[in-house]
Amino acid sequence: MLVLSQSDVRELLDLDRLVDALADAHADLTAGQASMPPRIAALVEQREGLLGVMPAYLPSAGLACKLVTVFPHNEDRETHQAVICVFDPENGTPAALMDGTYVTATRTAAGSALATRLLAREDSHVLALLGTGVQAHTHARALPRVRPIEEIRVASRDRAKAEAFAAEIGGVAVDSYEDALRGADVVAATTHAHEPVVRREWLAPGTHVNSVGLNPRGREVDARTVAEAILVVESRASALAPPPAGAPELVGVDPANVHAELGELVTGAKPGRRSPEEVTLYKSVGVAVQDVAAAALVLAAARERSVGREIELEETT
Fold first, then answer.
1. C or N: which end of the chain has fewer Cβ atoms within 10 Å?
2. Distance CA 256, CA 168 (A)
3. Burial class for 169, CB neighbours closer than 10 Å (0-12, 13-18, 19+)
4. How open is the CA angle 205-112-193, to the nearest 5 degrees?
5. Range(s) for CATH 3.30.1780.10 in the chain?
6. Which pLDDT does position 44 carry in this prediction?
7. 112-287 adopts what CATH topology?
8. What is the pLDDT of residues 24-66, one digit of tens each?
């Protein structure tokens, strides 16, 4: 079995190729060609944490399972930590064990980049980043790849963190979430907020919102935005499942009010943006086919470049 560290994965995972690979994965998911059971999670209530299990099989990418923890109060390490095990789909033999922390951060931002490519106005140039954590950093890398971003506004509960992050990425720190959102063309909400940080009255006509934050006890997008925006998800079954597997913002939402899955936009089965004035919302919960697609890219690159360490799980005779 090949073992790949986080530094290996960072070296091997190409963000631009990943966005395209996710488009293919979501097309397969929507077409019913993937096997992806609902995510399950064990809760650690005293830390507001969880351990999620996310298996999937994609004929085009393989068979894998991610184990991921979300501990939002971590300060000395990542809030999201993960490992991914890849199996040989021919015989079920474990083929690789790799860091999933970097994969999770990168594939989430790549999913938002795909949604932005499919939904944001072509002339979008102002990006609002809500939050300053790992996901904010990866979104700052991913979204300017798909739209001509000229201005990045950063908002956070902690002004010092917002200023430091803005300086790092060439953006500007603002005083409030409202200040970041008013007049923005594209939004990346990456918080663990209990109360909404995206409110409909702060959004200009034509705004595209990516929301990737997950807090089973709260919501980062208000109900009016969910109700009035063109709503797109990775998978209806996953997004509308009860939290923590599904999105708290979508509890009680009629499946008919979900305009499309990403795969339906990729294949053209459903239209994306229909006018410059529409507000669009991509609500992400993270789905396992994204991890499988990313892991397949990493494993192929590792084999091509002879990266990683081989270990034996079974004694040979």
1. C
2. 42
3. middle
4. 80
5. 2-104+289-310
6. 94
7. Rossmann fold (3.40.50)
8. 999 999 999 999 998 888 999 999 899 999 999 999 899 999 9
